[in-house]
Amino acid sequence: MAGALLLDAALENIPYGFCVWSPQFRLVMWNKHYRDLYGFDAGAIQRGMTLEELIDLSSSLGNHTDTTPADFYESYTADLLANRSGARCKNREVVRGGRTVETAHVYSEALGWVVTHEDITEEIARSEVVQRRKLELERQNIRLDAAVNNISQGLCMMDARGRLVICNEPYARIYNLPERMIKPGTQLEDILGHLFDVGMSASGTREEYITWRREVIARREYGKTVHELNGRTIMMQHHPMKDGGWVSTHEDITEQRQNEARIRHLARHDALTDLPNRIEFLEQMGKTEAALGRGEMAAVLYIDLDHFKAVNDTLGHAVGDEVIKQASARLWGTTRETDLLARLGGDEFALLMRPVESAADAARVADRIIKAIGAPMMIGGQQIEIGASVGIAVGPGDGVKTDTLVKNADLALYKAKSEGRSTYHFFEAGMDANLQQRRAIEAGLRLALQRNELRLVFQPLLGLAENRISCVEALLRWEHEGRTISPTEFIPIAEETGLIVPIGEWVLREALKTASSWPADVRIAVNLSPVQFKNRDLVTMVRSALTDARVSPTRLELEITESLLLADSETTLKALHDLRGMGVRISMDDFGTGYSSLSYLRSFPFDKIKIDRSFMADLTSRDDSQAIIKAVIGLGQSLGMSTTAEGVETDEQLAMVRAHGVSEVQGFLFSPPLASTQLANLLRSRNGKARKVAS
User: What is the pLDDT of residue 362?
Assistant: First the structure.
């Protein structure tokens, strides 16, 4: 009796459900944990109850909901019957509340099947959490490994004793480390020793670098250094960790350094010629100031390519770029090793000569520059000729400060250009005042049209055969700030700045408008600048002006100079032929003062040749002047061109040109330039005949 009580107590206190089924599948014994797992009341199950009855009761309480009682009974009994070997077999089933129960049954011939029932719901949950954590850790490790090995920087982690913990693939690749050097546990000093053995160089010696690394590690400080390895530049950064170890990053910055060097170079050099640019030139000039202050000499040469703009405009920028490159090479060939040649932009260059013994040194170089640039260039099978003008300022005499020397060299360059180009000129006192005056004229000229400061005067031309005014030349005058500025002062500036184009159009329209009230047999002559022929709409503009003024094209004479034909431009000749085709007369002005090539008279059939006034002054005293005038008049007659003698001021001059057969005369003997109202009165008097010169 006591043994039975002890057995019951033991069964009731085991931490899992327990039951025994006889070989006939009848319930022999069970404990309270068994009832609680399946929700059986204390009196609901009894000894001798069949397995089928118990399964029906269990299903009615909400257990085994994933199958029918009959199917569960058939499956359960089949498992029991299949296990009679004495082995312990396990199964799982879901009971009410979704809890998982693990059953284990063992067959005994004396008892039948002994079955244990254990609620493993929490155990499964814990296992799933552990499994999820394990999977997440594996995923994180995969991600970390992927991240570490796919960053561009090399990464190396060392423990507090200087042993390798981990490194990534870029680290091994940057230093081309062998397999043995990237194994965990490798000492830092072994790695550094290997790197120095294969060619690494850093600031200081091998021992000094390793000592520096030790000190940085010992001080637990952030450290950064750059070293070279087989032509590559590598930046290392040292980051201490809390546990005494450290992480170092390694980056191959070779390309970055090369790009930075290129950017620095481009910032201070011209992209086309690779010469130093204005920034670099002025900085080097600044470094020369101290030597100038001590009395040492240096020269600044400002160089401008002559006729480059015409090359660029007519042949295109590609040819212009090639001209610049060839010119820079030629300029470089004229310099010394201590000199600095720079391209300031466009067709402007500058040369800093340091040191120089005297101004003669700069003059010799300037002369070489002019000769070198003046030699013809062959570009694309085409011969191109340009020139160079050079302005020279020599310090300390012309200044010791950069701004002063540069400004004075620029002033000297302007002087060289104004003297005919392809020459050099030294800076002289007073040049600045002349430049200021020129800039004032340019500034005023830009507003002259808006302010109505321009006006025309008219000088008659006397036709000797008709003995009357046959033509009138329109002459431009500028009244500015209370004074009359001579055309010789402002016309060259207007041409250089391009202002001659709008001014020239105004002159043509105003002259035609005035001439519209004159007798129909009196022509109007208007000067055209070569710059105006660069305007593709010139012919259209002339036609428009004639139409607006209601003046016949045959009454208009356009005067051009020989310089227009120097370029022998097809565009220019076409414009001249188009104008002549409209009925406009074309006159060559100032004949005999320029190049005076007779080929110009063949390239275009002029209607008139105007003999420059410079030949009139010596006409009565010099035989050669008489001969020239006689030859020009005869040439005009033979070519069917009329001739006009300018600057006729005496009766003797008039008699001589009349005797040689000149067609027209113009000068103060007959009339000075007149205002439009005065001219109108002259034209009305005696039908416009010249009383003073009547034969």
Answer: 92
